[in-house]
Amino acid sequence: MNAQSFKDFQELVDQKIELLESEEVNFEQLRAFHQDEPTISRINQQVAAITPVKEAVTAFASRLSKDWSQEGDRVIGHILWAPKIEDSTQPYGYTKDFCVIHLDKRSFKEGFLGNAIPLMYVVP
Question: Which superkingdom is the protein from (predicted)?
Answer without folding.
Answer: Eukaryota
